[in-house]
Amino acid sequence: QVQLVESGGGSVQAGASLRLSCAASGGTFSWYALGWFRQAPGKSREFVAAIRSSGGTTYNAHSVQGRFTVSRDNVNNTVYLQMNSLKPEDTATYYCNMGAAWGQGTQVTVSS
């Protein structure tokens, strides 16, 4: 079955950048659209960004537009989330999604 492993989270100051990675195994990676979601304590999981299977089209939540960029490497079965100009409200556990599969999440903490 599909397994997803996120990495790259951490604790940073506001204005910093982080790059999240999600490595996939066990599925035909290039067939799937891929998504990033996040969940802050006490809140529901929310959509952050997505990218189509070919990588030609991306989608971003309004709250991250202009700051976050999703990309993918169909050779290495990895999807990325480049996060710039981080804000305290970006603090959450970030999850990648591929079909019905979810990763375990990686924590991002942004302090002011």
End-to-end separation in angstroms reads: 40 Å
Number of strands: 11
| Unreliable spans | none
Characterize the largest beta sheet: strand count, sense, and whether it forms a barrel: 7 strands, mixed
Helix content: under 10%
Strand content range: over 45%
Number of helices: 0
The shape is: globular
What's the gist of this structure?
The protein has 112 residues and is mostly beta strands. It has no helices and 11 strands.
Characterization of this structure:
This protein is an all-beta fold and 112 residues long. It has no helices and eleven strands. Strands 2, 4, 5, 6, 9, 10 and 11 form a seven-stranded mixed sheet that branches. It has a four-stranded antiparallel sheet with strand order 1-3-8-7, with no helix packed on it.
Topology:
Blueprint: E1 3-7, E2 10-13, E3 18-25, E4 34-39, E5 46-51, E6 58-60, E7 68-73, E8 78-83, E9 92-98, E10 101-102, E11 106-111
Parallel strand pairs: 2-11
Antiparallel strand pairs: 1-3, 3-8, 4-5, 4-9, 5-6, 7-8, 9-10, 9-11
